[in-house]
Specification:
single chain; 334 residues; three-stranded antiparallel beta sheet; globular
């Protein structure tokens, strides 16, 4: 008959063996330079197998092997976006001891600067994503309103976004809207700020905004054809930035938030209206979406890395099953 001491000892040994196995799997995954480089690249963005193969100039079969090793160690997770499976870093594991290992590994590799050749290949992939998104809107500009209504039209969230804006401490000054679409929100911004700047990479979409400006006789609105990097190059500084249903079209959402944080004045506010993560894959092809929404924690972690403090949040459930998140972030003062 097994006594209590033997049972406790057996339990301890099983727990130790499990932890030892987990440690072995972890260190195997972390013991290869290429896998560490993969984790470095996945810091804030997600990539498919083919994209990672291009980035690291490795055959797809070899890349799949490395990703499997990382997944077995709990260092990466997958998420389907349309027909593509994307890999990204895993959240921290439940066990405190393993949390410390994961956190320490990520913090250490993030100190390593990405080499220029790899950074250039990353930029090329993001440019390709941008090109595909821009082409979709150029080819479907006449159907923009109908496509938008399939998920969430401005009429469904516009008033709430306006109220969300009015609840912030930012008034007057300059405001930047990224991706103004048909320009519906520009009217509200024009009434509340001295100067409104609308930034978009699509000339066709800017033409729709221009028509709205002319129809409403908005004298304090300026349109800029370009991206956030252009705004940085022109040393644009604003009190407030708004993005309505833009990030799920962006090739690198974390990089966008990083750029926008640099454009904000101290105590400036960033307001984001975005889809929560969903599994309605038809939106990927029908609406030109690159990402099927985001988990709230995604935006929180990207904003924190960009030097933004989190403010208020509001969530709106749609009748068609989608959920909208309204998020508020402030430029950190320290």
């Amino acid at each position: 008959m097994i006594n209590t001491a033997q049972q406790i000892n057996a339990s301890y040994l099983n727990q130790t063996a499990l932890n030892t196995t987990a440690l072995a799997v972890f260190f195997k995954a972390a013991g290869e330079p290429l896998r560490l480089d993969i984790l470095r690249v996945l810091q804030h963005n997600a990539y498919g197998v083919l994209e990672l193969s291009e980035l690291f100039e490795v055959k797809q079969s070899g890349m799949s092997h490395h990703l499997k090793v990382l997944a077995n160690a709990g260092l990466v997770v997958t998420r389907r976006e349309g027909n593509t499976i994307f890999y990204r870093r895993s959240p921290l594991p439940a066990k405190p001891a393993m949390q410390d290992l994961h956190r320490g590994l990520f913090a250490t590799i993030d100190l390593i600067e990405i080499c220029s050749d790899l950074a250039q290949r990353i930029q090329l992939i993001n440019l390709e994503r941008t090109r595909a998104s821009r082409e979709f809107f150029e080819q479907n500009v006449s159907q923009f309103h109908a496509n938008q209504d399939l998920i969430a039209s401005y009429a469904q969230y516009g008033q709430t976004v306006t109220e969300f804006l009015d609840a912030t401490s930012t008034k007057k000054g300059r405001v930047l809207e990224v991706g103004p679409g048909e320009g519906a929100f520009l009217l509200e911004l024009s009434r509340r700020f001295d100067r409104v700047i609308a930034l978009d990479t699509s000339k066709e979409m800017l033409a729709l905004s221009q028509k709205k400006i002319q129809d409403q006789k908005l004298a304090n609105v300026e349109l800029i054809h370009g991206d956030t990097r252009l705004a940085l190059e022109e040393e644009l500084v604003v009190d407030c930035i708004t993005l309505n249903m833009v990030l799920h079209h962006a090739p690198d959402p974390a990089a966008i938030l990083s750029d926008l944080a640099r454009l904000l004045k101290k105590n400036g506010v960033l307001l984001i209206t975005e889809l929560c993560h969903h599994d309605q894959t038809w939106a990927y092809e029908s609406c030109g979406d690159l990402w099927l929404g985001f988990e709230p924690n995604d935006l929180s972690s990207w904003a924190d890395a960009a030097g933004l403090d989190e403010g208020e949040s509001l969530y709106l459930a749609q009748r068609n099953g989608f959920q909208i998140q309204l998020r508020q972030f402030f430029k950190k003062t320290k």
